[in-house]
Each structure stands twice: as structure tokens, then as C-alpha cells.
Amino acid sequence: MLVAELVFKIIRDTDLSSAEQGIRRYIEALIFNGQILGREFPTAWQNDRFSTRLVLADDEALRHSSHSPRALAALQQLADVGLSYPQLAIVGQDLLSSHVDPCVHHDAIANDSATPSAQHRKVSPDVPGYIWYSRFALTHSMLCCAEHFAPVPLYRLPVPAITTVGATTGLSAAQDHEDAIRWQLQFQALDEIQMQQTRVLPLQAERQLQGLHSALNRQGRRLAKAYANTLQRPVYYYLYAGSSRDCAAEADKHCPSCQQPWRLSSAWHDIFDFRCDRCFLVSNIAWECQ
Predict the structure, then answer these.
(1) For the structural domain made of 2-93, what CATH number should be given?
(2) What is the DSSP string of 209-271?
(3) For residue 108, is pLDDT > 50?
């Protein structure tokens, strides 16, 4: 990941509120397409310009072809609030971020001369599969390469059609990866709650994280399945295990979905002690039992 700065020059009379709304609209579109990472984006007003500091998924994240339709629309609307197209300056590598997965190559993305469309991007044939994994301190994509366990920037991937549940059950078309990123924000919020020493609502948070049929994990597995169908690759969903009722039996527990044995002879990527190739689930021996 790269630390970068975006500079929005003032090209005509504007006011602080309008400029702030225009910049926020564009930044949020980049967030929900997986082009930039994190939650906070300090922005300074410097005489004839606004400067925003952010973290890019990689060095191609802000290419024209990497933008979603929503981001392109927000880019065009900057002129309406008196701002220029942003100028990008790379500050350097982010020392606190993970390296992007090496097996998703540049040819997986359309070039700048092509019409950008996340729905029509291709997946590199070198990617064997994915692991849907997140923790509260991670800012990168929740989709990691199953071979290298390195994050794959979401903007590189086609946007799946998401199954909606309720009165209007069916497939909904999306412009970007907002559904996946909003799920991740919920997961990380609950994970952070149950990780604190002085905890508020620890049991409720842990139930959502650990329970196979919790609302959080039902939504996450539905998203993982949608990406698997779109990418035509297996996506293993990480089921968090923090506590256990019986540490003595923890290592011999069965898959919570099919009830079959799923213990691995050695931990996959030094984290996952369990993997079910039938249900596409991975998990670990509960942290309190290790």
C-alpha cells in the first residue's frame, strides 16, 4: 500500500461547505470501490487548494479505468463545486500495511483507454482461490489470495450481483464493492469491542463473530458466495473463534455447518487449524485455548 496526497485546486469561486461535500463525495466513492483504504482522510485548506492524505491499495488504484461509475460521476462533479480534477502525489510505501497479493497481475484490469467497468474486469488465472478474512486492526481488503494469504484490492475484481433477502428477494446490481466494505466495517467494530480489556457488550459481539448463523456471518457468507460465483473461484469464509466452552475438546471439533471432521494436519498460513472444502469454511483453535 502507498501513502499518497490528493490536491484539489480551486478553479473558481466556491465556499468551504460546497468544496467539502464535493471532496467527501469523491473520497467515499473511492472507499466503497476498494481503491483507497482506512476510515480517516485528513484534508487541509491551503490558500488556493485542498490537500487530502490517504492510503492507496496500489499504484494503479486511481487510474481512470480503476474507477467505479459512482467514482467517475463524483469526479465530474468536482468542477460544479469549483474544484479541479485531483492531482496525485505518491509520498511512499505505507510501512504499517500489508503487501498486495502478487498473483493478481496488471492484465486483470482494463487499460486506461478502455471503458472502465468493474463488472467486466477479468481475474488472473494464477489466482487459485480466496479467503474471506478480516480483523479489527486490518485496513486492507477482506479478500486474500488463498496461496499467498495477501490482500487483493477489491477494485481489481468484478462486482458481483448480491442476493437481497426480504420482500424483494432477488439479485441486485451494484456499481461498486460497498456491500462488502460495509460488512467489513461491522465486523471490525464488533471485533474491536470484544478485544478491549474493559469491554462493553462483549458477549453480544462475540456471538455475532463466532456464531455460524449470526446475522453478521449469514451476511458475510452470502457475500463470499456471491464473489465466488462471480470470480469462479472458491472463497473460504473465516469463522472467528475466540473463546470455547471446552478447551480440551477444541482441537477435535467438527465443521459447524456439515458436522464433519475438518482439522488440518498443520495450520494453513499459520492461522487456520480447520478447513472444510465442502462448506468453504476455515477457522482456528479458539485463541483462549492456545
Answers:
(1) 3.30.70.100
(2) HH-TTSHHHHHHHHHHHHHHHHHTS-EEEEE-----S-HHHHTTPBPTTT--B-EEEEEETTT
(3) no
